[in-house]
Amino acid sequence: VEVIRVPEIVELTRSDLPATVTQDEVNLSTAEGNLIVLLRAAQQGMRGGVVMVLHDITEIKHLEAIRRDFVANVSHELRTPVSVIRANAETLLDGALDDEPAARNFTTAIHRNSERLTMLLSDLLDLARMEAGETILTMTQVSVHNNVDRAFDMLAHAAEKRGVTLHNEVPSDLQLNTDSDTLDQVLLNLIGNGIKYGRSIGGQVWVRGLMISDGIRIEIADDGPGIELHHRDRVFERFYRVDPGRSRDMGGTGLGLAIVKHLVDLMGGTIGIEPRQEGGTVFWAELPKG
Ligand code: ADP
To answer: What is the per-residue pLDDT across 206-228, written as a single tens digit (0 to 9) for each?
Structure first.
């Protein structure tokens, strides 16, 4: 009792208990932090004493909580577009079909929200595939500069619409042995975020690349509002958004950076965020040379 000041454990040493007793989810505070354990105690028969087995289930409990949150988040994200589609379709069926301008508005809303659902489902499928370990990397020698150019081409329209200039400052001889499509996906996401959340009209996004001791480092920088310190670690969580309304308006699912982190992990690299000194954000990814 003096050493283990946990009432649940002390309670299990009572000699008048049944031969075996189980208690789930006992909280233990230890020098290494709080643990959740499953306790099993068996009386030692004639010799007296109790044998106690403690299973550390902290990680399992943590994962269960994440899964619960995830299901709640997905349901919440699906509910809004589905309700909008349903309400608009009902209004059309109730007579708005005959009023052409109104019908056009309702149909546009149905179209926009079905696109949002498609994006959400596609991101969820990407995550599920990655978690199931189904992503196979095909390693080839890639020139990072060319991949960045390709990403710029695909994002040119979005950048032009927001008045953002893109700069590819990756040296043309920077080579990497990696899966080219995965690198493309990472670049598209991070450059796309720089366009979406950086400064509009006159804003800039730079991509730089350099050799580091055991690989290469790619930086995607913007001159937008930046990401405050307390959001920085969390933006890689699924559905975490700094400004939820704005992210949805920009067509974001809140899953982009979670997917990027997964992809960088798959490539054996690490990813992080730094504030840009002159204002804005720098996302960096360090990738092994392969
Ligand atoms: P989304 O799908 O909403 O774009 P992401 O996972 O890509 O989600 O990003 C998570 C959040 O991080 C965004 O909602 C946005 O608030 C913030 N964010 C991402 N990139 C930037 C950036 N370059 N500058 C400022 N905020 C950013």
So the answer is: 999 999 998 999 999 999 999 99
pLDDT at 212: 94
What is the arithmetic mean of pLDDT over 55-77?
A: 90
For a mutational test of ligand 1's pocket, the pick from 197, 249, 253, i.e. the residue with the most ligand atoms closer than 8 A to its C-beta, is: 197
> Which residues approach ligand 1 with their CB closer than 6 A?
193-194, 197-198, 222, 224, 227, 235, 241-243, 247, 252-257, 281
Paired with 40 in beta bridges are 22, 53
Express each pLDDT in 259-276 by its tens digit: 999 999 999 999 999 999
Residue 177 half-sphere exposure, CB side, CA atoms within 13 Å? 5
Ligand 1 centroid distance, CA of 193 (Å): 6
The pTM score is 0.81
Mean pLDDT (the chain) is 91
Spatial separation of the C-alpha atoms in residues 20 and 36, rounded to whole Å: 20
For 24, 135, 209, 226, the CA distances from 128, given in Å and listed in that order, are 31, 10, 30, 30
Q: Is 179 exposed, middle or buried (0-12, 13-18, 19+ CB in 10 A)?
A: buried
Among 193, 196, 234, 262, say which to mutate for ligand 1: greatest number of ligand atoms within 8 Å of CB: 193
Q: Which of 228, 143, 150, 140 is nearest to 191 (CA)?
A: 150
